[in-house]
């Protein structure tokens, strides 16, 4: 999926070609490929009106080895799409186990998008590319939306005898006079095959700008399914449940819709002067997200610190922690270039006494490269630009193959980091903290994603590509990096040479490149070795470089003095 200046596009790739028969005016039938069409959405009329306009089929390039596009649906809204999101449905979501859900919900892709025309739209598209089934429901705000979140929640039942119902809940943020979050409900009726009219039933105002909003990842849970996380620039994360009614009773049981608040640590002053008044404030929150099925929250702060609030004390760490201790990070660390000196290996440890810290860094290839870069480039001055960053939590198959686990990806300015398994990483830190003998190699660590060329663009989002099979936490993962004008895929799949060469003069160069790549991955056979030896003994050019970006240099013969 991608958004563009006039709407939203959904693309199916790598599948069988869709053909259908059409009949012209003379009654003759012909086969066409309806793999691309536009959907005009006219929201001024009563209900939604769609007009399908088949687009011209593009010429196929036989030399292009990328998967073919099976179907492309372009939703034309007449306004630029600023962002979109999906419900936090798990990979093994049991939506099929809820017979009260309409059929089109269980077999559709659910998208919530917001555009520059102040509108928020909920779109359902059939997962099967052979079916042309889609619906759009929209509502308007007083300002341009800045962020949205959507989930599928149970409808509150006045009594146990009432039938079970479900609603789509949408939380949309817009800065009018003050930052405001609008909560909208779209009812789902079992007897109806269409989306009902959206109903905005609640609004909440905030003092500081909102940086993150996300519904609980425990979808359709009876106690946590409708909880929403709201983070702001002042360093506060609040948990709100729009389906709970405000309480007028002062009894401790009636907590109302505001369930909890968590605050980030205070900023450390750069210089302390008793004669100069200073303002102490909390670290701004760049992004926050749910983890462990909505039982904890992970946040990224403005100085590169990240941490996890354990809401219920049920994490891999100290489960016996009291409520007051849960206001602090259960585990935290730092990412980025400007890591404090008291932090080791990405996790903050106990502070050392003054003067005990050595000025020499351990000489590893990574630290040597960083020291050399700082030696010639000088200190980095980042005071002129505000820090940017985010965190992405994805549910992936566990290494054991039983169940799923959370994989976390950070980006801070132009640096990207990943935790393949958050549960194993948390257990590793807990064992190191208690000195239980687990060893420092237990579980995956926080590692930096290398090999990324941004071409001078700023990172917008980083995510781990999904995998159908479980793999070890030590195996290399695949990532997708979204920048301002391009998508970058960091994959470990070996590129295959094209079956058809456009220029015969480069056939030997492409063959040498493929052989070098196979040799680097340990997959070169006997025939490839013989061709490499033949090229080295002949008058062919020599490939210089250990990757696909190497150059070809002609052989030169000389004498060594």
Protein architecture, described:
There is one protein chain. The protein has helices spanning 103-106, 365-377, 422-434, 507-520, 526-537, and strands spanning 2-4, 7-13, 20-23, 29-32, 36-42, 49-54, 69-76, 81-85, 108-115, 119-126, 134-140, 145-154, 166-175, 179-188, 199-205, 210-215, 228-232, 236-240, 258-263, 285-291, 296-301, 305-310, 331-334, 343-344, 347-348, 389-397, 404-412, 415-419, 447-448, 459-464, 479-483, 487-490, 542-544, 551-553. It is mostly beta strands and 561 residues long. The chain has a domain at 504-553. The protein is globular, with a radius of gyration of 28 Å.
Layout of helices and strands:
Layout: E1 2-4, E2 7-13, E3 20-23, E4 29-32, E5 36-42, E6 49-54, E7 69-76, E8 81-85, H1 103-106, E9 108-115, E10 119-126, E11 134-140, E12 145-154, E13 166-175, E14 179-188, E15 199-205, E16 210-215, E17 228-232, E18 236-240, E19 258-263, E20 285-291, E21 296-301, E22 305-310, E23 331-334, E24 343-344, E25 347-348, H2 365-377, E26 389-397, E27 404-412, E28 415-419, H3 422-434, E29 447-448, E30 459-464, E31 479-483, E32 487-490, H4 507-520, H5 526-537, E33 542-544, E34 551-553
